[in-house]
Specification:
Shape: elongated
Oligomer: single chain
Largest sheet: 4 strands, antiparallel
Structural class: alpha+beta
Number of helices: 10
Radius of gyration: 37 Å
Strand order of the largest sheet: 2-3-1-4
């Protein structure tokens, strides 16, 4: 007990030293650890006319978001094969590992969250996942044809128009190229009898006619007040976070300071031992000096 009282200042000094060393070690850990950023989007999932709302509807939708078909769309949209240096299947597995989905309580809202390295990467992935999931919902309604487009939901038809427009433009370019090779008028139909030209004109006219008919149905539905916000409505847009969520710097520094303080006695005892040995070594010298003084 007397030893502790004598060297109490050592404990105080080592406690301060331990706190400082712990915080320095924590700072080094924060520098070495990779920084991770997070982004979250919240969407509302609405039932489409062709879908049956069963008790497990939302569980199935959560699985669809993380399905290979949906994640492969994200890989293609963001060109992750090149960015990550992986094949499509490996990139999809990587996405499945960093994308988290959950239903918000008992509502029709679903949270899509991504945490990974890179400031803008999580935001880009969440945005791409939402777009890919919307496409998967639309595609689940089946193909739109001249025989069934009258029965399709307005949202499915709007999605069809966004895909059909570029397709018709591509067919027109092909038709122009075929007419140019055949030496006909590139702006008008040609009755030269060339099988390739006839087939190109026929395919273009069929697809263009379907696009026009679907467009008219959509316009009539909108003018009559029929419409929808879509099967996937974004309630919270994903944002680019500039502050990392990992590592938690304040928490790591606090843990480092506490750890250094708790370990300070382990540093204090060796120092006390050295000081005590030094004191013991000086004791005979003081005794010898005192003896000589008494003799004189």
């Amino acid at each position: 007990m007397s030893l502790i009282k004598r060297y109490g200042w050592v404990f105080l000094m080592m406690a301060a030293t331990g706190v400082v060393c712990g915080m320095m070690a924590a700072a080094a850990v924060c520098i070495v650890m990779p920084k991770k950023y997070e982004s979250e989007g919240i969407i509302e999932v609405r039932q489409m006319p062709h879908e049956k709302k069963t008790p497990g509807f939302f569980e199935a939708e959560l699985e669809r978001i993380l399905s290979p078909g949906c994640l492969e769309k994200v890989v293609e949209r963001l060109d992750l094969q090149r960015a990550l240096g992986m094949d499509k299947e490996a990139a999809s597995r990587f996405l499945k590992g960093i994308v988290t989905t959950r239903r918000v309580r008992d509502t029709e809202l679903i949270s899509i969250r991504v945490r990974c390295a890179g400031i803008g990467f999580p935001w880009a992935i969440v945005s791409a996942v939402i777009s890919a999931y919307r496409e998967c919902r639309m595609e689940s309604a089946g193909p739109v044809t001249a025989d069934n487009f009258e029965t399709k939901d307005i949202d499915v038809l709007l999605y069809f128009i966004t895909k059909q427009g570029p397709k018709v433009d591509g067919l027109w370019d092909q038709l122009v190229a075929v007419r140019a090779v055949a030496g006909g008028d590139v702006s008008e139909a040609d009755s030269s009898g060339d099988p390739k030209m006839i087939e190109a004109e026929r395919e273009f006219e069929i697809e263009e006619d379907l696009l026009n008919r679907v467009g008219k149905k959509v316009e009539m539905a909108r003018s009559g007040g029929t419409g929808s916000e879509g099967p996937v409505i974004i309630h919270q847009e994903p944002r680019v976070m500039t502050s990392p969520v990992s590592p938690d710097v304040p928490l790591i520094r606090a843990l480092g300071a506490v750890s250094g303080f708790l370990l300070s006695p382990l540093l204090a005892f060796p120092v006390i031992g050295l000081l005590n040995l030094r004191r013991s070594a000086k004791a005979p010298q003081r005794t010898l000096k005192c003896g000589r003084s008494n003799g004189l």
